[in-house]
Amino acid sequence: MNTSRRGFLHSLRAGVAAGLIAHRPLPGVARAALFDPVESAHDDGLIHLDRNGNAYGPSRKVIDAIHSSIGSVNRYPLTVCSSLAKRIAALHRVKPEQVLMGCGSTEILRMAAFAFLGRGKQLIQASPTFEAIENYAHAASSEVISVRLTPRFSHDLDGMQARVSPSTTLVYICNPNNPTASLTPRKDLEEFINKLPASTFAVIDEAYHHYAGQYGSFIDHPIDNERVIITRTFSSVYGLAGLRLGYAVAAPNAIQKMREFATEDDVNTVVGQAASAALDDLDGVNESVRRNMDDRQEFFNQAMARALKPIDSHANFVMMNTFHPAEDVIEHLRRNNILIGRSFPAMSTYIRISLGPPDDMRRFWAAWDMLPYPKHTMQH
Ligand SMILES: Cc1ncc(COP(=O)(O)O)c(C=O)c1O
Fold first, then answer.
1. Which CATH number does the domain 3-59+283-377 belong to among 3.20.19.10, 3.90.1150.10, 3.40.50.720, 3.40.50.410?
2. DSSP for 113-168?
3. Residue to mutate (ligand 1; options 106, 180, 245, 344; most atoms within 8 A of CB)
């Protein structure tokens, strides 16, 4: 046992009731064999609970596909990509011309900003939310209107509606929302979208939809609206953040407008093959979702044991109020080699923690328990 592990176990014993920390046994060899074991130690010696990626990485089948793709890395990715686009189209029962892939869904958001925004045009979004599209909107010289989430952390759709004007050409909805992990009901979104003017496009960012059990995705249950653009990523449930792949599903006309701003050959050969394998590996996806549910439940158990009340999470991360400047808590954890999400000015006492494997989460709670604040004030 190394020193840090011994120190960690010591702080665990000194921490909350041992029963709550007890680790569930692995549910079975068949499930475990879908994924390679996770190494808790990271190259930089830090525990990464900061970027909402998939802490367990891709499934074994996807890793095999990555290995076997190596032989084609000297080729441009055209064939791989067109067959992947067809595969994604078939998955969602749309035509291939309704699918646009990008270097991460971040590139899709960039394309949407440049296709639908510009000087004199306006983006409406929530606050706080995932900030990429706002950054690109500014780069496109657009105005950005940010509307606070409701007290229950869903999108304030009435408030957003009230800000819509003739220059509103794009609305961004992140569902579940990053950083709050909260969900806006699909029915409310539909009503909101149906009321938007004919010149307004809506991006629904479903980066975390796999983790939001009851949420009916806009691709799986489409609404008949040519101005709705759904974005997805391979960075979360599929565990491929480092390989960079995302996509949009929308009407051919909207896809065409966005495609004009795509980088040529932006999807690489390796991720093209890895993504196909990931889509085929339903067991891997289910296992990834199940494991996240366990990790999320365990997080809430630990929080409850400390009388904390995080925001209900529908994703692979959790946000909670610390009732202290988030910057200070982030810095305390950083000193303990734990990275969590950055601070969000609109919610300056909240921290966002990406869920990691049990060992990483135990280190998080051990460091949390060393915070120099009176614990009884840390309630919702
Ligand atoms: C809501 C949301 N959308 C999109 C992205 C970007 O994902 P990608 O890795 O596909 O660029 C992220 C990444 O954190 C995100 O949180």
1. 3.90.1150.10
2. HHHH--TT-EEEEEES---HHHHHHHHTT-EEEEEEPPTTSS--HHHHHHH--TTE
3. 106
Could you report the per-residue pLDDT of 297-327, keeping only the tens digit for each? Answer: 999 999 999 999 999 999 999 999 999 999 9
How far is Cα of residue 55 from the mean position of the Cα atoms in its chain? 12
Name every protein residue with a CB atom under 6 angstroms from any ligand 1 atom: 52, 104-106, 130, 174, 178, 205, 207, 233, 235, 241, 246
Q: What is the separation, in whole angstroms, between the first and last Cα of the chain?
A: 38
Among 17-21, 209-213, 362-366, the least confident range: 17-21
Ligand 1 atom at minimum distance from 233 CA: 10
Instruction: Report the C-alpha gap between 253 and 92 in whole angstroms.
Output: 18
Is the pLDDT reported for residue 39 higher than 80?
Answer: no
The CATH fold assigned to 72-280 is Aspartate Aminotransferase; domain 2 (3.40.640)
Query: What average pLDDT does this structure show over 271-277?
Result: 97
Start-end of CATH 3.90.1150.10 domains in the chain: 3-59+283-377
Take residue 330 and report the two structure tokens written for it. Answer: 């982030």
